[in-house]
Structure formats: C-alpha cells, structure tokens
Amino acid sequence: MPSKRSLENIYIALLSPVAVYALGWALYNFPSSVVDMRLGGLAIITVFFSSFLRIQLPRTKIHVTTSDAAIILTFLWYGGETAIILSFLEAAFTSVSYRRQGGNIGYKTILINIMVAVVGLFATTVIVHAMFSSEAPQVVEAGDVTQMILLLAVMGFALFLFNSTLVSLFIAAKTEKSVLSVWTEYCLNALVMYLSGAVLAGFTTKAIQDINIFLFAAVCVFFGTVYLTYRRYINDIKTTAAPAEKAERQRAEQAERHVRELKHYVEQLERSGAELKQSHARFRHAAYHDALTGLPNRNYFVDTIRKLIEQKMTQPLVSYAVLFLDLNGFRKINDSLGHSVGDQLVKQVAGRLLQVQRKDSIVGRFSGDEFAIILIGDADERGATEFAQSVVDTISQPFILNSKQVFTSVSVGIAFGNLNYDEPEEILRDVDIAMYFAKDHGNEYEVFDEKMHTRAVSLLELETDLRYAVERNEFELHYQPIVDLKNLQLAGFEALVRWNHPTLGQIPPDRFIPICESTGLIVPITLTILETACQQTVDWQKRFSESPPGFVSVNISGVHFGNPSLVEQIKDVLHKTGLNPQSLKLEITETAIMENGENAVAMLRQIKELGVQLSIDDFGTGYSSLGYLQQFPIDTLKIDRVFVRSMEEGRQNGEIVRAVLALAGSLSLDVVAEGIESIHQYHQLRILSCDYGQGFLFSRPLAAAAAESLLSDPNRWQSLLAGGDFAIVNPEYESTSYQLH
Ligand code: C2E
Ligand code: CA
Ligand code: CA
C-alpha cells in the first residue's frame, strides 16, 4: 500500500499534464476576435468578485457562488476555451487571495484547485463538442429553448461530475477514505451549486437576449438577494467575530500580563540569585568561622594546614607549628556563673590571643574553650615555646566578667609541621595529645613527642579492654569505712570500684571512670556496682546484726545522673536485693549536679522519694553558690579532702571546714570529712563537731573479705579516743601508683 504522500504525488503527476494540455489547448484555440468590453466586464466580475457573491445554503456548508454561473455564462457566450482561461484565472486568484488573507491552504492544494477547474471545464467542453453539432455560442444564438436547457443541463452536470470526481479522488488519496464515501460526503451537495449556476446563467442569457423586463427583474432580484445575503453574512461574521475578537483581545492582555509576571519573576529570580550569592558567601564564612568570636574555625585550620602540607613538597623550608589551647576549669566557670559569662570569657580570651599573635600566625577557635594557633615562619622549638609562654602569661591575667574578677589558666600543646604529616588531621591529633599531656601533668605547655602518642594509643587500648571488662567481670568493689567521729563506731561504707586488668594489674577508678563516662559504659558498670554494693550490704547487715553497717555509699557519675532512667534503675536494684532504701546513699558531686541544671532538683527529688539518701561529694571544689543547697533534698555533705588536708597546714582552709560545718548545721545536714589521714585532723574535726569521717587513718578501701574483719571488730578505733596508737589496715593499695606504659 503506497503511502498517502506518494498517492497524492501520483495524483498530481497524472493530473498536471492533462491540465497543462487543457490550458495550452484553450490558449491556442482562444478566439481573440471575441474580446470586447462585455467579455472584459464579465472577466473582471468573474475573477475578482464572483467568489465573494455567494449564499450559504441553510444547515449545509455549501455556498452557492456566482462564480460558477459566471463561468457557465462565459461558456455559453464565448465557448469552452475562453471559459477554461477565465476559470483558470478565477481559481488562481481566489485561492491565492484566500491564502493571502491567512486562509489555511497550501500551494499544493491551490495547484490542485486550479488543475481541477481547468481539467473539469476542458472535459465539459469535450462533452459539449461531442453532444452538440455546434459550439455553445451558436446554440445560444439559435434561440432554441429546449436545446439551450439541454446544453445548460449537460454543462452543469458535466462540470459537477468531473470536478467532484477529481476532488474526491484527491481527498481519497489524502485521507484513508474510499473515493465513493468522499464523493457522497463532501461533493454530492455541490450539485446544487452547478445546477443553480447553470440556471442563473440560462436566465441571464435569456433576459439579455429577449430584453425581457420580468426576467431581468428576476435576475436582479436574484443578485439583490445574493448581495443582501452576502451583507448579512458579512455582518454575521462580524458579530460572530466580535466575541472572538474580544477573546483575542483578552488573550493578548493575558499574554501581556503573563509577560509582565514573567519579567517580575525573572527579576525576582535575579534578585534571589544575588541573595543566594550573598548567602553563599555568608554560608562560606559561617562554615569557616566561629560565630561567637568571628575567629577561623576548625574547617579553616584543616584547609590551611592542608595547604601547608602540600606546599612542603615544593618549599620544604617553610616551617610551621600548630598550638592547641584549652582553658582549665572552663566548665566550672560555665556551670557556676552561667553560659553567657562563659561566652564573655571565650570572647575576652580570643581578644587577648589576637593581641599576642605574631605577624604570620592565625588564631582560631575550635569549640567551647578550645583555641588553636598556627605559627608560620620562626616556628622552631624556641620560637614556638616562647610564643606558648606569652599565651600562657596573657591568659593568666585576671578577667573581669560581670564585674567579678575571674582567674583561669590554659594548657597548651605544640606540634611542628614535619614531612611525616600527610593529612591535617594527623598534626591536629598530635597537638591535641600534647595539650592533654600538659593538662594531665599540670604543665603550662608541652611539645608533642612520640611517647605521648604511644600513651594515647594505650589509652585507646584501655578503652577497648574496658568494653570486655564488664563481660569478664573484671571489676571489684572495695569498701572504705565511714566512721562516726563521736563514738568511733563504723557507720557505713563507701563502695569504690577497682579494675583488675588481666595484664596491667589493678587500675584505679580515676584512670578508667572518665573513659567509661565518655563511652557511655558508665551506666552498665554503675548498675553492676550498685547491685553488688547493695547485695553485699544486705548480706553484712544480716551476718553482722550486732553492729551492722548502717549504709553503703555508691558514687554516681554526672553522666549517669543526667540519665532519666536512673530512678527506675535504682528502684529495680533495691527491689532485687531487698536492701532498705534508707541504707543506700548515693554520692553525687557538686559539679555533676550543676551540670544537670534545672533537671537536677527534679532528679534528686525523685531519688529521694525512693527513700534513698543523698550525699554531695567533693563539696567545696565546685563553683556553686551555697544558696542552692537549700533547694536540694540532700542528707549529707562530704567535705573534700583538700580542705581536710590543709587544716593541718594551718592555712585559711581550716576556716572553710568550719564554715561548711556551720552551714550544714543550719540546714540540718550530716557532714562527712574525707581524707582524714592523721590523728591531728581527726581531733580538729571532732572539736568542730563533724559527724563522720573517712580516711586512711581509719582504713584504706578494702576488698569485701578484709572489710569483714572491720565489721567483726567494731571497737577497733576506740583507742583513738584515748589518743593511743593506731595502725593502718591493709596498706597495699596505692591509688597513685598506677602508670600507663
Ligand atoms: P571519691 O568519691 O572522692 O572517693 C574517695 C577517694 O579518696 C578514693 O579514691 C579513696 O581511695 C581516696 N581516699 C580515701 N581516703 C583517703 C585518704 O585518707 N587520703 C587520700 N589521699 N585518699 C583517700 P579512689 O578509690 O581511687 O577513687 C577515686 C575516685 O574515683 C572517687 O573519688 C570517685 O570519684 C571515683 N570512683 C571510685 N569508685 C567509683 C564508682 O564506683 N563509681 C563512680 N562513678 N566513681 C567512682
Ligand atoms: Ca565518693
Ligand atoms: Ca570525694
């Protein structure tokens, strides 16, 4: 099946030679003698006006135009050749002007229109020639009405048949419809056009021939009707066009609005683009700077160090050092004086660092109270340590915060950029290790060396080991007696944990509790400790019923104290072990309470509601104001051993113990003095009416079995009352002897 396009082309190819021949034949045989004014007028009317003079038949798309009548008239009066030429001109003019006016008609269709008109008329001419003995004008001249009617009928039908068939063929070639269905659908109706054209031509001819007034009037009426209908038609078009025009105008306005909106949108887009650029710059700044101080941040440092490392490949002589600073006791200041004061301090520190910085140095803040400085050039050991000293000196000057003088100090780690560093994180890691080394050893600054790294690594190993320690049951509780200072009877025990490391031996809590806190292991470990201590106490209270331990004190870390499930956990342990809640005392440090802010009071109340006693540990070392004590539902204050120790040295700290005791008295709180090592301290505390005491003087912390020997000998400290000799029990545990390799 050939495609539509090729069928169309075949049609044109077949029709065009016939059309060319017909037109050539018409031109060749055109009787130039017939050219007169009448023909000229007829030609002008036919070509230029006849297509406009038409009537649309009601409920059809068919327009009866005067052009067919004019062509038939020409045929009648001047013969087929003239009619062909005129028809050619008319078809060409009508199609082209229709197209010019914006009609939807292609050149191919125009060509077909013209060809159909020419070929149709040519065929009609041939038929007329064959059917009539003389030419059409002669038939007209002969005046035989019957012959004339026959001629008109033949012309009308023939024209209709040829034209409609040719058009149907073309449409059928273009569409997928059959020729017959196209013919019946589109062309059959057109018969009326040709017949009415023929009738009109006949009447016109007759009217002119006979000079018949009536006939002429009828023709005039016809043309008048045609004209009026045309007028109405034009008006109709105008009225139907009016809403269309309005719609068009609205569309145009809409389009204009749309364009305006679009412009507005584009402007907005451009504006927000600019804003985006700006905020991009802001984001960049925020990404590389610290909001509080405006100093470069860690990202900035990482980038800068990376550049320095890369530079080393090409400029190995450029030396640089990184200093890492951490304020000492910043957390306490923050907790006790509030965060806004902490922020003020950070800002002032930043200001001082900027003052002491060198030409080629960069000062930055990493987080909280951590600062870093990069020294570029003059970064040998002497230069860097001198610089570190100047930093230490400037920070040790008093700060004025909220019109109060506050002192702080700083620990500084120093690391030098060397060829071994490939990544900025490596030097930052080392400088961090050096800083912690300085902090741990109470030094102002420390230059990194490999040994520190080994130590840090072993700390890391310790952390790994800790994870297994719980499973392997490597923790052991020791119990240190708390003694009633009035009668020197055992009041209770403080449970203190020890870690029996499989290879490193016994590790004191100061070394591993902070690791547990930072890893979260503190919660499960504390629960084990709590349960063991409670169970042990229940057991002892039963077995040593004559002089039972009144309570056991268990230390609760600040991290765990902030955990909302603590209350439930304590309840569970009490339930499980059956210990009287009154016999359990929880020791929470002043700092831990302050760290938990507003939650602390609620937490303490909930614990208190369980019937458990509460004790504030290391009292006097935190930055708390004494006023808060009233709000807390606590039972006991434990005076930190530094105050007890200094009592002996006769310094003013003795006054602190006195003040704490007075305060506790007014709040009806018990007081436990920690770290009593000498008889002198004991006597002084007794004079000051301190209720309880704990310390090496009475006993070091003991394993459970050794503690039992204390329980079975309740009068062992009585000799102290009389001022007699006293031996320390089990001195083998040295809490300060442990060193990591
Ligand atoms: P702490 O709560 O202040 O415990 C008292 C510490 O002082 C114990 O050190 C104890 O051995 C030591 N001590 C007692 N009497 C004297 C004395 O007369 N002179 C001297 N110099 N020291 C004395 P230990 O057992 O090494 O514990 C250190 C810290 O570790 C404890 O301080 C406590 O904060 C923490 N800790 C110990 N056990 C636990 C525990 O089970 N849980 C938690 N969260 N922390 C614990
Ligand atoms: Ca304690
Ligand atoms: Ca303590």
Keywords:
741 residues; single chain; alpha/beta; binds ligand C2E; binds calcium ion; disordered C terminus; 27 helices
Description:
The protein is α/β, with parallel strands linked by helices and 741 residues long. The protein has 27 helices and 19 strands. The strands form four sheets. The protein has an eight-stranded mixed barrel, surrounded by six helices. Strands 4-5-3-8-9 form a five-stranded mixed β-sheet, with helices on both faces. Strand 8, helix 15 and strand 9 form a beta-alpha-beta unit. The two termini are 96 Å apart. It binds ligand C2E and calcium ion (2 copies). Residues 480, 495-497, 508-510, 513, 529, 555, 557, 587, 617-618, 641, 675-677, 694-696, 701, 735 line the site of ligand C2E.
Sketch the major β-sheet: 8 strands, mixed, barrel
pLDDT average, as an integer? 84
Tell me the fraction of residues in β-strands, as a range: 5-15%
Distance between the termini: 96 Å
Tally of individual helices: 27
The oligomerization state is single chain
The rough form would be described as: rod-shaped
How big is the Rg?
58 Å
Assign the structural class, choosing from mainly alpha, mainly beta, alpha/beta, alpha+beta, or little secondary structure: alpha/beta
Q: What small ligands are held by the chains?
A: ligand C2E, calcium ion
| Strand line-up across the major sheet | 10-11-13-14-15-16-17-18
Share of residues in helices: 55-70%
Low-confidence stretches: 724-741
Topology, number of strands: 19
